[in-house]
Amino acid sequence: MSRPRCSVLQRICVLVLLALLPAGCAIIPVPTRSARVGASDALGSCADFFADLDHRAAQAQVLDPGAFRVEGYPYLRVNRFLASFRKEVGNQAAFAAWVDQMQALDHDARKYEIANLPQATGSIPGSANDKNGLYGKLASCGNLLKAADFKDNQPQESLRKKATAPDEYMSLPRVLGLYPLISLFVSHGVSNWQAEARKTFSTEPPGGWQTIRYVPEKSNELPAARSIVTQARRDALGIPDYSPDARQALFQLYAPAWEVRTEAEYDRIGAPVWTSEDELDIDTRQPLTYTLLSFTRFGKEILTQLNYIIWFPSRPKENALDIYGGSLDGLNYRVTLDKNGEPLLYETIHNCGCYYEAYPTPRLKVHEKIDYAEPPLILKAPELTPLKQFMTVAMESRTHYVQHLYPSARRSQVAAEVYSLVDYGELRSLHDAKGGRRSMFSPDSLAPGSERLERFILWPTGVVSPGAMRQWGRHAVAFVGERHFDDPFSLDKMFMGTD
After folding, report:
1. From CA 220, how far away is CA 237, in angstroms rounded?
2. Can you give the residue ranges of every domain in the chain?
């Protein structure tokens, strides 16, 4: 999502838009209950278990918003990628694999919800106060309900209808905010930003920058991605199942070098932490890069995506009226691999979903007409030899705009700080100052304290709190029309293969 230059909006629209308070609210998780709740048998007991666990998580405000609940099936969650298979799971093996993937998604989310529950005293083993007992019961009760719920074809059809992922755009603000009119100003601003970004972007190293360079920890031996991707076991949907070692090897191979033009602490990367004042901050003594594995679709292929996410303490304000500045900032760099494990597409967004940029390799051809109301910014990707080179992502100071994407030698003598790769899931359960655990993200998917003033101007676009940092899986990447970072069909919409 590109953000428009708002000089015109500020002069013409601010008074009008501030008069209309933003309407609508974010998509907040709403627990769902099994129809078997209250039954006296084992199935009823398991349905009650999920209902009680959700009740406790809701009361404690620790519901994880990264994936969406499936009505009537408390042991399942769905994201946009899995929702895309709804009409394609006609045979029993494919349907079973689809349900298993949604159950795994729920189990993953509940792992963090349980970890973030307040610690209670006098825990009873197996109860909702006993965290260790809960993990085992999640799987056993989920499996029991799953076996009972899908004995015949009729429940299968019901699940296909319910396993949907809502979009990240609110309709009511668009209606109240005169969206058709406002979108004309926004489109103009986006076009201006994209034109400027094209002028400043380069596949060569920046010149004259005072930078800090971050590189990943050295690995004894880098693997061949081809063998990892082609030899991975795939389920009946074609989704790869990577072992922890294989996943780590892929992330190590394609980990980028970060290069940041540095003026002050706000340009240093670090680890999000909860402070004693109950606020989010970035500990720049720990340069970390968070990794997240995702999948997408391209034609008939299921492709692997490697997400690398960093955080900055802030995007500092230029002045009191700077609508884009505020606490916390960050970037997501994504590498999409082809069926043989070779890079096919590189992409970047800021962690608000803003400033989407795509960098296709020569094996992709851009469609002459892309059916998006807000056209994506597509730039050129440099050639890369992963075993010998890092892809270097070079960012401007303060705004952290990506201005250079270029290869650099792994054995470079240029001074660099070393960062560690850690799982993105750590952000969903951080230690807090009270001895407990808490997600970086609220149930509305936003990072508290990262709100920007632009939300009072751009709310008619339907995007919730434009400019705020948000959890992966909840990124709208356009203000005009609708587009999501995790849209499983975005490659097909933008590109065609040349092989």
Report:
1. 34
2. 42-162, 202-434+486-497
